[in-house]
């Protein structure tokens, strides 16, 4: 319906504005302060980044109620990966926030999202530019695995701090013998992260073939 389409357009516009601001801010800060800006990335743009990622949870709801025709599982994996890395790994450990890997992650995430939300906004209006469509469907194929590698590196960097501070580790008092050592949880999540990457990449290739490999009937200039 027109109302749902307008709602999705406004949602994409909000996300585009947020990620564009982050991406532009990162570039300007790097051009101004050089490498010194990298360690301060999280403190400069972390709030907006967290708001954008929390807002992205709505995309799962959009798919569940049927107003977005994207596949649920790949999108769910991509969103939950970011939520876990951003809020559980980076936000909870101040020592990790100053690492260069945070800047790399934010750069990859926002580069992908600026392109994706630009494409989505135009698609809501029935506008399909072939170069933008190609970029949206192709850019994620090399950049998504790079972002997963950066996520894995961020987890590895955070492990010594989780071990030292005992963050999220739980040990129940007697008579219970149950305990959760959070670094072990993160190590197991690394396996899930890379297994999910294989599934998501396969889905990205299938989407690209569906849109670009069977003709360009949707990819017309308007």
From TrEMBL:
It is a multi-pass membrane protein. Keywords: Endoplasmic reticulum, Fatty acid biosynthesis, Fatty acid metabolism, Lipid biosynthesis, Lipid metabolism, Lyase, Membrane, Transmembrane, Transmembrane helix. It is found in: Endoplasmic reticulum membrane; Membrane. GO terms for biological process: fatty acid elongation; sphingolipid biosynthetic process; very long-chain fatty acid biosynthetic process. The chain crosses the membrane at residues 7-30, 42-65, 127-144, 181-201. One of its GO terms (molecular function) is very-long-chain (3R)-3-hydroxyacyl-CoA dehydratase activity. It catalyses: (3R)-hydroxyhexadecanoyl-CoA = (2E)-hexadecenoyl-CoA + H2O; a very-long-chain (3R)-3-hydroxyacyl-CoA = a very-long-chain (2E)-enoyl-CoA + H2O. InterPro entries: Tyr_Pase-like_PTPLA (IPR007482). The keyword RNA-binding does not apply. Pfam families: PTPLA. Its EC number is 4.2.1.134. GO terms for cellular component: endoplasmic reticulum membrane. It comes from the Eukaryota. Pathway: Lipid metabolism; fatty acid biosynthesis. Catalyzes the third of the four reactions of the long-chain fatty acids elongation cycle. This endoplasmic reticulum-bound enzymatic process, allows the addition of two carbons to the chain of long- and very long-chain fatty acids/VLCFAs per cycle. This enzyme catalyzes the dehydration of the 3-hydroxyacyl-CoA intermediate into trans-2,3-enoyl-CoA, within each cycle of fatty acid elongation. Thereby, it participates to the production of VLCFAs of different chain lengths that are involved in multiple biological processes as precursors of membrane lipids and lipid mediators. Belongs to the very long-chain fatty acids dehydratase HACD family. This is Very-long-chain (3R)-3-hydroxyacyl-CoA dehydratase. It comes from Nesospiza acunhae.
């Amino acid at each position: 319906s027109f109302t749902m389409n307008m709602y999705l357009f406004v949602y994409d516009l909000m996300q585009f504005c947020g990620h564009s601001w982050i991406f532009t801010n990162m570039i300007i800060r790097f051009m101004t302060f050089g490498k010194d800006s990298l360690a301060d990335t999280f403190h400069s743009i972390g709030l907006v980044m967290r708001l954008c990622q929390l807002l992205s949870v709505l995309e799962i709801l959009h798919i569940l109620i049927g107003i977005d025709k994207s596949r649920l599982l790949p999108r769910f994996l991509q969103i939950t990966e970011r939520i876990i890395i951003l809020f559980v790994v980076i936000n909870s450990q101040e020592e990790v926030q100053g690492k260069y890997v945070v800047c790399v992650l934010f750069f990859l995430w926002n580069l992908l999202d600026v392109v994706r939300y630009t494409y989505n906004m135009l698609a809501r209006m029935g506008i399909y530019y072939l170069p933008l469509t190609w970029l949206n469907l192709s850019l994620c194929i090399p950049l998504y695995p790079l972002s997963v590698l950066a996520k894995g590196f961020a987890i590895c960097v955070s492990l010594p701090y989780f071990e030292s501070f005992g963050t999220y580790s739980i040990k129940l008092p007697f008579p219970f013998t149950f305990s959760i050592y959070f670094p072990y949880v993160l190590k197991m999540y690394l396996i899930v992260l890379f297994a999910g990457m294989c599934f998501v990449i396969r889905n990205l290739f299938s989407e690209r073939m569906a849109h670009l490999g069977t003709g360009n009937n949707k990819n017309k200039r308007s």
